[in-house]
Design goal:
single chain; about 240 residues; mainly alpha; 11 helices; about 0% strand; globular; transmembrane; DUF5058; membrane; DUF5058 family protein; transmembrane helix
Length: about 240
């Protein structure tokens, strides 16, 4: 185990991890710049772009905190550079944790055990990298095609098609979050109370924001709802 951790935190691993992390940061900066430049073509003002970026950053706090907790536990077994690199590329520490456990079991050992050597560590790293390759390839080969399809649908028959795309996008988001929410509701009374608390808190905040025209409250509504739900789950239940 000790030799595996020495390899995991060695300078060569840090160098490769830093390269990957740097590429991800560069991509994020490029995407933000491209979105800002093309915002006027879709009728967005500078204030709306800034508000969208702020909402995205705030909404990422909750999932990021959950991933951070799992990532900290993974650092004990996989070292800092690989854990940091995989969390940056994939963004789901829970998926990486499951992949690491499966790879260790397939090798014939367990994370943190005496049999966890350099070969087991290498097996886990290859498993995690190859396991995350699928959706990265889908992004590379199909993102442009999906964008062209969206433009084609939106351009046909004027605003009706544009409204159709808005309906499809909203329905997809409702379906995704509805699926996540319903799965948590079925886990027990505690989870159900937390979900209902978050939904009610969000509903109340949006009513207040619309009534008093508080745009900043809309931006922070998800963050406040997450804090309210966490508080109820931790202090009351």
């Amino acid at each position: 185990m000790e030799k595996a951790l020495q390899l995991a935190n060695s300078y060569p691993v840090w160098i490769f991890a830093a390269i990957v992390i740097g590429i991800v940061i560069f991509q994020a900066i490029v995407f933000i710049r491209l979105a800002t430049r093309t915002s006027q073509n879709v009728g967005m003002t500078k204030q709306e772009v800034q508000s969208a970026l702020k909402v995205g950053a705030i909404n990422a706090i909750g999932p990021a905190m959950a991933s951070l907790i799992i990532a900290i536990s993974l650092m004990t077994f996989l070292g800092n550079p690989v854990t940091f690199m995989r969390s940056v590329v994939i963004g789901s520490s829970a998926t990486e944790s499951a992949g690491a456990n499966l790879a260790a079991t397939a090798f014939g050992t367990e994370l943190g055990s005496d049999g966890f050597n350099e070969q087991a560590y290498t097996t886990i790293v290859w498993t995690l990298c190859l396991g995350g390759l699928g959706w990265l390839l889908v992004t590379v080969f199909f993102t442009k095609s999906l964008g062209k399809m969206q433009e084609k649908i939106s351009s046909q028959q004027g605003s009706k098609r544009g409204s159709l795309m808005a309906i499809i996008s909203s329905a997809a988001m409702l379906g995704v979050f509805g699926n996540f929410g319903s799965a948590e509701l079925l886990k027990g009374v505690t989870n159900a109370v937390v979900i209902i608390t978050a939904a009610l808190f969000m509903f109340i905040l949006l009513i207040i924001a619309n009534k008093f025209k508080l745009n900043w409250l809309k931006e922070w509504s998800l963050g406040f709802s997450i804090l309210a739900a966490l508080s109820v789950g931790f202090f009351i239940i």
